[in-house]
Backbone:
């Protein structure tokens, strides 16, 4: 197969990513925010990973490939829209990925959002008892 046929074949293949996963892959933070704000599930799974797993993986890859400091914008956006860092796919969670890939910012964000969510749930339970 020559190069032009290989390129044509690649262009004709269906992209497996959902629109939200595509936005994560391309680091299109405004697009990701819009998609989530329009109601996309922050915990959607595509290609054996949650959006949050994908964000963590992409953020680490981009930093490694560019030599730039790691960015955690997609992780923060997903957590703000309710992504569950402890949702398991194939026995692993986004939190596991962050630890495995040594994405310290993502670990801190997950810890902060998890603590915040627990506090909000406790406040809600107390308010309902009154």
Residues:
């Amino acid at each position: 197969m020559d190069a032009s046929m290989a390129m044509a074949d690649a262009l004709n293949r269906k992209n497996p990513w959902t629109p939200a996963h595509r936005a994560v892959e391309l680091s299109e933070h405004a697009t990701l925010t819009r998609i989530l704000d329009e109601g996309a599930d922050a915990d959607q799974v595509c290609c054996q990973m949650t959006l949050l797993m994908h964000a963590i993986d992409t953020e680490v890859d981009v930093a490694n490939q560019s030599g730039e400091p790691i960015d955690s914008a997609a992780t923060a956006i997903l957590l703000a829209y309710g992504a569950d860092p402890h949702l398991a796919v194939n026995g692993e969670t986004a939190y596991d990925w962050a630890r495995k890939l040594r994405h310290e910012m993502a670990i801190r964000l997950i810890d902060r959002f998890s603590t915040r969510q627990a506090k909000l749930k406790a406040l809600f339970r107390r308010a309902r008892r009154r």
About this structure: The mean pLDDT is 85.
